[in-house]
Amino acid sequence: xxxxxxxxxxxxxxxxxxxxxxxxxxxxxxxxxxxxxxxxxxxxxxxxxxxxxxxxxxxxxxxxxxxxxxxxxxxxxxxxxxxxxxxxxxxxxxxxxxxxxxxxxxxxxxxxxxxxxxxxxxxxxxxxxxxxxxxxxxxxxxxxxxxxxxxxxxxxxxxxxxxxxxxxxx
Length: 170
Fold this sequence. Notes:
This protein has helices at residues 3-21, 73-87, 102-112, 126-130, 158-165; strands at 43-44, 52-53, 63-68, 93-98, 118-122, 138-142, 148-153. It is an alpha/beta fold. It has a single domain, classed as Glutaredoxin (3-Layer(aba) Sandwich), CATH 3.40.30.10.
């Protein structure tokens, strides 16, 4: 190949990648876990260190795993929508309290309400890391067979729930 063509080809290839990147949603972080079994963990629950939670406890049910923390401003934004899902009994929501202090997480739930069926406590973030979590909030939908079917990075809203998760509840 002619060396004079190498630089223009590289330039146009890079320009094409950047151009198509302009049209992607930065919240769309593809997960290699979609279509695969949910990673196993066993963690203490937030409200009771003697009690444990594992995704295996939800086998046979469709459920959401919502990664949240008391220090997370976007988690506060989505909280009313999670409370609405709980009020309407749409789907069980399991909380994964991520890289937080137990007393701070409990304080948030006491003040704002608890939308979670169970809250697993992951102070070091190890379980979240196995799920490919980049930060909070992130929400996963897991089917009856324990397979991850959908993921959303960022706060959940009624519109996002309807477009990303609702079809899996039928």
